[in-house]
Structure formats: C-alpha cells, structure tokens
Amino acid sequence: MLKQEKVQFVLDTLEELYPETPIPLDHKDPYTLLIAVLMSAQSTDARVNTITPLLFAKADNPYDMIKLSVDEIREIIKPVGLSPMKSKGIHGLSHILIDKHNGEVPANFKDLEALPAVGHKTASVVMSQAFNIPAFAVDTHIHRLMYRWGLTNGKNVEQTEKDAKRLFPEHTWNKLHLQIIYYGREYSPARGWDLDKDVITKTIGRKSVIEEYYKKKK
C-alpha cells in the first residue's frame, strides 16, 4: 500500500470510529485549559479532571491564582504528580500572563512556550483546542501509533510531529490528533495490545512491528 493510501485509510477509519472528538480535559476557557494541560504531564486526563475542579474552585483565572502561594497550589494538585514543578509553573505563568499579556493566554507558540513549565506539546494543545489554530500535539499514543503504522521512524517526538504534519492535510490536524489518541487508548495501547482488534495496524502496520507481535505471542 502506498504511503498516501495508508494516510487515507487512517483518516477514513478514524473518522468512522470517532466522528466527534470531545476534548478530554475539562476546562471552560484558554486559561483553565492551559493549566489542565500543564497538569496532565506524566499523569492521566481522568486524574487531572478530578483535581482541576478543586483548584479552579479557588482560582480559575491568573489574578486569583497568584493570590495562592506555590505551596497552596502544590497541596491541591499533589495527586497528579510532579507537583513541585507544576505548582511553580502555574504560579509563575499566572504572573507573566498578568504582567505581559493583560491576564490573557497568548494565541501564539512563541509566547506560550516562553511561559514556565509550558513545552511545545502543551502549547500545541492550547493552540489547537483553545484557539482552533492548526497544530499537531504529539503525545506517547501518537508517537507509538505513527511508528506502528510505518508513518515515522520513531526517533523522537519532534520527528513524529514533522512527519505527521507532512503526511496529513493541515485542516485535519486538530481533530486528527485527538482521534489518534482515542484510537491508541482503545485499540492500540502500549500494554495489553490485541492486534486482532487493531484494524489500522493490522492493515497498514510496519512489517517488523507485526512480526515482533506474533513472535512474542508464540
């Protein structure tokens, strides 16, 4: 199958499975989304969604957030992990949003990535989901699946993002990155993977990945 045919097969299958793509992190505006995405690093969306209501009840905007101390923020968000770094980041970026951006979340990569604890992936999620600006946030699911599907060499997430942007039309990016995440969780997980249920990998997958799968099953 040609690469372009593979790409079309992925797009068609995911559109059929996930015509709707609700954003997994609960939020009400760009600021609360930014905080939720920052908190989701090395945690699960489900866990973050249990903690953000507690934090946002006290502070759901940068002006209220800086009234809390770093320790108070840390105490609330402890269950999501990495709380020392995340609490400093949340407090620090809230100050910068007030001082430099009139309390608003900037809608560009340069300013977003200049905020403490905000990397390229977090910025990509905010750009696509808060501002509907085309971006392709590559998480562990997308990185794993793009490799399994033979659409990237899997060297690093930067390369995976480049390949995804090169292969898939720009107008699909914002929805597609969520569709791939949903598919990865449901049909193509890292652990407990059942290739028979994973129709995309079974149909277009990298030969070496499929061979390795069956070798391990024996």
TrEMBL record:
Sorted alphabetically, which keywords does the UniProt record give?
A: 4Fe-4S, DNA damage, DNA repair, DNA-binding, Endonuclease, Glycosidase, Hydrolase, Iron, Iron-sulfur, Lyase, Metal-binding, Nuclease
Cofactor binding: number and manner: Binds 1 [4Fe-4S] cluster.
Q: Where is the HhH-GPD domain?
A: 39-186
Against SMART domains, the record matches this protein to:
ENDO3c
For the keyword RNA-binding, the answer is no
Instruction: Write down the required cofactor(s).
Output: [4Fe-4S] cluster
UniProt superkingdom: Bacteria
Matching entries from InterPro entries are given as: DNA_glycosylase, HhH-GPD_domain, HhH_base_excis_C, Nth
Reaction(s) catalyzed by this protein? 2'-deoxyribonucleotide-(2'-deoxyribose 5'-phosphate)-2'-deoxyribonucleotide-DNA = a 3'-end 2'-deoxyribonucleotide-(2,3-dehydro-2,3-deoxyribose 5'-phosphate)-DNA + a 5'-end 5'-phospho-2'-deoxyribonucleoside-DNA + H(+)
- Might you give the EC number(s) for this enzyme? 4.2.99.18
Quote the function comment for this protein. DNA repair enzyme that has both DNA N-glycosylase activity and AP-lyase activity. The DNA N-glycosylase activity releases various damaged pyrimidines from DNA by cleaving the N-glycosidic bond, leaving an AP (apurinic/apyrimidinic) site. The AP-lyase activity cleaves the phosphodiester bond 3' to the AP site by a beta-elimination, leaving a 3'-terminal unsaturated sugar and a product with a terminal 5'-phosphate.
Q: Quote the PANTHER family the UniProt record gives.
A: A/G-SPECIFIC ADENINE GLYCOSYLASE/ENDONUCLEASE III, ENDONUCLEASE III
Q: Provide the family line.
A: Belongs to the Nth/MutY family.
Stated name of the protein = Endonuclease III
Q: Which organism is it from?
A: Wenyingzhuangia gilva
What gene is it encoded by? nth
